[in-house]
Task: structure prediction
Amino acid sequence: MLEIRGLKKSFGSLEVLRGIDLTVNKGDVVAILGSSGSGKTTLLRCLNFLEASDEGTMVFDGETFQMAQMRKKDVARLRAKTAFVFQDYNLFLNKTALQNVTEGLIVARRMPKDQAVELGRRMLAKVGLSDREGHYPSQLSGGQQQRVAIARALATDPEIIYFDEPTSALDPELTGEVLSVMRNLAEEGRTMLVVTHEMGFARHVSNRVVFMAEGDVVESGASQDVFDHPQQERTRAFLRNIYQAGVPAD
Ligand SMILES: Nc1ncnc2c1ncn2[C@@H]1O[C@H](COP(=O)(O)OP(=O)(O)O)[C@@H](O)[C@H]1O
Ligand SMILES: [Mg+2]
Result:
């Protein structure tokens, strides 16, 4: 469904992505792991054209694009098929939970308001927030705000959802509710590309893992294989560090 070949990106003289290859099939949940600074956020931003790439080819639904030379209308068309969930939720603070979900539907997609409200309510129900539709972000916990952001992403029925560390801004006791919503989406067969430090999620929910270091994909494969039999020393060192730090629960 999504195939990336040779994606490169530099900021000035700093080469942040050194030729990334990545394949995401329909229904895949791909976890992207890697230390801070390895280029994970830049990768997602390039995939959604929030950042211009220097080189690389994208094949999306069988259509091929040169990522360094994107036409505006192709960017708009591709973005309409994808959704992005950010670390810090990116909600409109002056809009209610329901309005945050319906805004894009009404403004960008020109959906009639009553239809958008109906769909928005269904999406809030999906993330367990039916009783919070009239609340503003400041009246919601971080976990609830992130679930609103996920409801907003789902409302456009995207072919793929990109998540950039969706739980890393949350207090530990709130990560579970967000991960459980994401697990439900995975079980429904949603295609997701998730940058995460949640090793439990990467190991048990995602079916594939991509490990990045210094702008390269060092290792990728089936989640169980990468966790149980990492082939590369850098992957082993990363996993060792994470587990020694006591981060994951399992
Ligand atoms: N807009 C930018 N301008 C300059 N350098 C950047 C910019 N965005 C990211 N970088 C640098 O690119 C590298 C990778 O960053 P990032 O993609 O955020 O990594 P990660 O998400 O894996 O922590 C870092 O060295 C970071 O400082
Ligand atoms: Mg990042």
Observations:
- The CA atoms of residues 240 and 246 lie 10 Å apart.
